[in-house]
Amino acid sequence: MPVSFTEFIRLCKRIAATSSINEKTTIIASFLSRIDKGEWKPLIMLLAGKAVPETKEGGLGIGFSLVKKALKSGVKPLLPPPPPTVSDVYQRLHEIADVRGPGSMEKKVMLLSSLFNSLSTDEEMRWLAKIIFGELRIGVEEGHILNALSRASSVPLEYVRRAYMLRGSLDELIELLNDKDHDIRDIKPVIFKPIRPMLATPANSISEAFSLIGGGEAAVEVKYDGARVQIHVKNDRVKIFSRRLTDVSGSLPEIIERVKNTLSNNVGECILEGEVIAVKEGRPLPFQELMKRFRRVKDIESVMVEIPIQIFFFEIIYVDGKLLIDQPYVDRYSILERIVSRDLLAERIVTSDIDEAEEFFKKALKAGHEGVMVKRLDAPYILGSRGKNWIKVKSAESVDLVIVGAEWGHGRRRKWLSDYYLAAYNPDTGGYELVGKTFKGLTDEEFQYMTSRLLEIVVRDEGYRVWVKPEIVVEVAFNEIQKSPKYRSGLALRLARITRLREDKSPSEATTIHELRLMYERQFRYKGRAGDV
Ligand code: AMP
Q: With contact defined as beta carbons under 8 Å apart, do 271 and 317 qualify?
């Protein structure tokens, strides 16, 4: 029996009713075991709040105004009489996402309206809206889902996790789990399918970075202030993916050429990682300039001259049938050195001497870079993980936060949404918790851009203020983290200002509330605490 949408809502409510992670996972796993495997994909995707996979270009493409129009227009249901199944809802949302071309808005409204009207209660409509806005708020995280899939399919979590990271999306993972002809334990990356990269943990100083990786010798690499790219090569074809796993090859033709020219002829297939930066006359250009390159898909030639870019490689993940992630960094690096020419490798030193590392850090900052990455020499490459193998050290303290709401400005700024509510990610609930508000840091051009972006993702309009889907990540500098009764998180940033838009980051990569709490605690190494004797 296919799972009805009504049943799906019941399931969501049961999951939301418990705060125990284990219980949530058990509920999902036992539900999966009871239903046909063909239903896993739509059910899991909707539960994960991803009506379409993250990797889909343009996402779902349904905003607040479209939903409002759909609810008003009262189109008769096109679906067979009720109740719609989870598959029906999933498929219909995909159809809407895929509508393109002239008249697409009207068509989307019509399809969405018919979907809403095929539901039998207001409550069901509310749940559908929650799915569309990615605001299910039932405390289900990617980790719980992977765990539930592992239990329901009796495949050890380690393999489920690895397959997910290598395929980059939940829907493909589920297809793999249900594919009897392939052993998921033996999975290799597929060239031209981006994989989930390893992430870094912040430290305040070089010595802290060395102690976090456990001391001893480490590689200290320049941390370039650019955008991470994953480069897939198969013979003479090259594709480039952004950190958010979207294909950006079209915007970076000269990098594609450079990769083709540098790779040793002995390499057939490989996956490399590097950082693309904008450089002019040997100096890195601000990150904003680089983002213009990533946004641009037309008239590339003119912008190629205006904003020249360069790549520095720092990783190799796969080469000619061999997945290298279990090998130590030093071994991966020596393969990388063999196939990429030296001038395209990230500048680095290998040392156990903190003073020498400190010197290198200062030199990197002087050259206009962001800082350094301290890397453990014996570390494997752990897909999708933020571990203690890579430690980033930057010059100033900053965090990456998600904009969850905004207020209209006053005076000169009255036409712009210019005062932003900033939130940190809470990995335990999958939600975002407010930690500050700022109207500082953006240029007029950026305010204008931000206003139009925010208006596309409004979920609640309160007149003077809007609440939005948590989608836009910004880097925020601040003077201090304070305790605050104003926010549920209990923390607030003092003198927060936006230092740049981080369109290369997804919201779940934002600074977590736990990291912020740690940063709060760390402040007291240099300051007295109020109330301390
Ligand atoms: P952050 O974006 O602040 O979380 O720092 C991690 C990012 O630094 C990575 O995702 C890369 O985009 C970037 N990065 C720059 N240089 C390097 C490097 N040498 N090794 C690794 N990551 C680097």
A: yes
Instruction: Based on the fold, state whether residues 373 and 265 are members of the same structural domain.
Output: yes
pTM above 0.70, yes or no: yes
Whether residue 414 is found in the same domain as residue 519: yes
Q: pLDDT-based confidence at 54, cuts 50/70/90?
A: low
From the number of C-beta atoms within 10 Å of its C-beta (0-12, 13-18, 19+), residue 385 rates as middle
Mutate to test the pocket of ligand 1, among 198, 223, 382 (most ligand atoms within 8 A of CB): 223
Residue closest to 277 by CA, chosen among 210, 224, 231, 232: 224
Residue ID of nearest Cα to ligand 1 atom 1: 200
- Model confidence over 405-458: pLDDT tens digits? 999 999 889 999 999 999 999 988 888 999 999 999 899 999 999 999 999 999
φ, ψ of residue 268 in degrees (nearest 5): -95, -55
The two beta strands, 386-394 and 199-203, are: parallel
Please check whether residues 281 and 408 belong to one and the same domain: no
Q: Would residue 481 count as lying in a domain?
A: yes
Residues 164 and 266 in one domain: no
Residues with CB under 6 A from ligand 1: 200, 221-224, 228, 275, 314, 346, 373, 392
Residue 78 tokens read as 């096109």
Segments forming the whole domain that contains residue 73 = 1-187
